[in-house]
Design brief:
Chain B: This is STAS domain-containing protein. Chain B: It comes from Mucilaginibacter rigui. Chain B: InterPro entries: STAS_dom (IPR002645), STAS_dom_sf (IPR036513). Chain B: Pfam families: STAS. The structure holds 2 protein chains of 2 kinds. Chain A is an alpha+beta fold. Chain A folds into 2 domains: 136 residues, Rossmann fold (3-Layer(aba) Sandwich); 218 residues, Phosphatase 2c, domain 1, CATH 3.60.40.10. In chain A, 35% of the residues lie in helices and 26% in strands. Chain A contains 10 helices and 17 strands. In chain A, α4 links the parallel β4 and β5. By secondary structure, chain B is α/β, with parallel strands linked by helices. Chain B has a single domain, classed as 2-Layer Sandwich (Transcription Regulator spoIIAA), CATH 3.30.750.24. In chain B, the strands form 2 sheets. Chain B has a 5-stranded mixed sheet with strand order 1-2-4-6-7. Chain B is globular and about 30 Å long. Classes of the chains: A alpha+beta, B alpha/beta.
Amino acid sequence: MAVSKKILLVDDNPLVLEMMGRALSKEGFYCMKANSADEAMAILGLERPDIILSDYHMPDVDGFAFRQNLIAMPIYKDIPFMFLTSEGDNELMLKGINLEAVDYILKDTPLPVVVSKINNFLSTVREEHERTLKELSVAAMALNLHSVPQRLPVIKGFEVDFWHKSFQNYPGGDFIDFIKIDERYTFIVLGDVMGKKWGAWYFSFGFLSYIRAAVRICISEGNFSTKSILQKINAVVYHDPVVNDVLSSLSLLMVDTEGGLITYSGAGDLPLLYYNTADKGLKQIGSSGMLLGLMPDGDFDEQLLKLNTGDRLFIFTDGIIDFEDTNGKKTDYNTFTEAVKPYLAQSFAAFKKSTFLQGKTVAHIDDCSLIHLQKTDQ
Amino acid sequence: MILLTNIYKDALIAGIQVKEANLTVSDAFKDEMTSLLDKGNKYIIVNFEGVIYVDSSFLGALVSSLKYALVNQAEIVVAGLNKDVAGLFQLIRLDKAFKIYPSATEAAERKS
């Protein structure tokens, strides 16, 4: 993972800002500079740094008051903070410690030492963060909770595989499941609980449970309609006070091995990408349904597709189409279409190694999930 | 504050003050929207002018605010979506849940 080093420098002395900025830029930091606490607040509204290095003595709002203001705001209080001060007196230090300032740098410290101090500090914060993450992951593993399958189903006449990357290695809101009913029918589930990290991850199990239950109940009643299954899930989610404030997308596909038929219904999901071997064409397959739990009637529909040997379906969540360029983050469905084109003559395993998907691993913009289904010879 | 609000005719325009509307601001956004609805605003225009990226956490907060608005007999519309964000709204059918206007003033005039 590329280590992000975005720093916000706050100092009323333009010379100090310039010198610090240069020294830190050389060390790979992306520097944002503010002449005052007010200017720093304006920058914070636009971009979130990994660390703030602020002068103590500033006119109007000093470093002390600035830090106090940040602590009062939940979205900023956790950003690691260091004071840059020309004073070393104990009283000042004590005041700062009460403000949860994590470290100090004296202004006359040689620049290389300043840089290494900041680097060390960031590493400590990261290590602590990773340790907590690991402990939580171990707890989740102990509970045997998985939001993606541990093994792939065997579906006669089809090859199915998936690629999943969580956001910054947190379990997240994306969930994948393969529900094999019998040798003939298998359901493919891909959902995205809106949100990231633990909150979304927790709810992904709630949604998965409803989906599994709805699929099983409908099948036991002889109802093989993906539209009708979505309607049932939507009705429950809409009325359930535990999850009705949490929205989720869902792509639900039923594979019928007799005839290679796919039935598909979607809820606020991205259109599937369908590759037809006969005309070598890529086509979006969209559905009309709205996000689960949004409206009492989700306006769901159902599409029927017949896959012939070699035909492929790509089912994915929005993390796959998010990317970052020099102008910032963007979302564009066509980036996926273009990325997959050169791999259509190759296996999905080859695409998993593509620079496009490997890039998603490094970029860490969102949870990313992609399911690939291909019709093979019987 | 994520939102800068001002009254225009009988509408409340809530302008998003960040370039990237993502996880880091989604909770604050939802709290501010809830508070605007609690104050009795019945027609809120969420102005996306200047926003270049919206992630699913933020969309979740927006949609959740819409559900809260419906319970309170209020309406939330969106305006000023750039091409990418408008494309995303269409892709995941949020254009069926929200009325979308080219600009906040047009939304206030209820013209598309």
